[in-house]
Amino acid sequence: MKLSEIEQRIQQNWQSVQQEVNTATLATGREPGGVRVIGVTKYVDAEWTAALVRAGCLDLGENRPQVLWKKAEHDGLQSGVRWHVIGHLQSNKVRRSLKYQPVIHSIDSERLLHRVATESSRAGHDTEVLLEVNISGDEEKTGMAADLIDQLLSQDLPQGVKVMGLMAMAGFGTDSNAAKRQFDEVRVLRDKLSAKSGRKLSELSMGMSGDYQQAIECGSTMVRIGSRLFDGLLDRTTGVAR
Length: 242
Ligand SMILES: *Cc1c(COP(=O)(O)O)cnc(C)c1O
Prior knowledge:
TIM Barrel; globular; binds pyridoxal-5'-phosphate
């Protein structure tokens, strides 16, 4: 496939995703634009990532910090992009990641929250974070139990982090009904924690290519969409760029 065709395809995919997200958002009675699309670019290289930015997607998510660091230095990705860390972040990769001032969706331990806070204070800027909740109860899944998040939010939070809300993933292999139940559970949990702690927790990061419409119905404010944006461009069996 020629580069111009790839570019065009990415543009079309971006536009149709935006349309679907807007339709789903309006259906919940919210303003269009009330749901932010994070383009998850872990399947593709920096060139294709830059094509997605040219199409208009300015929020990019990566689950591997080293890949984020590399892409953030690439032509066409150095400015105007808001980065999102969506995968497990090891403590020893926090400092380097903060250089790009990302939103961190995947705070999955108290220790990581404190590490991000300390390093942010040191760097002289606050970091927006989301607390990842393990809603599926799936042992394999990362994220904190609801009780632990409750405990965390009942204490004074450290300087340097702004806790914006919760992030969750539906359990692996769940059908759309089960996903919807889990997303509903996350919103209910957020409402409860918000009332109890007096914190706003306005963001809910939930929904991926296969379940973002359900997530929006359940109140998601950030959907993390990867494969759908590269429809027709990824190998179905491996999920990586052809
Ligand atoms: C890969 C990934 C996504 C995007 O998944 P798709 O199904 O390709 O849209 C979203 N969130 C996280 C944490 C991911 O690792």
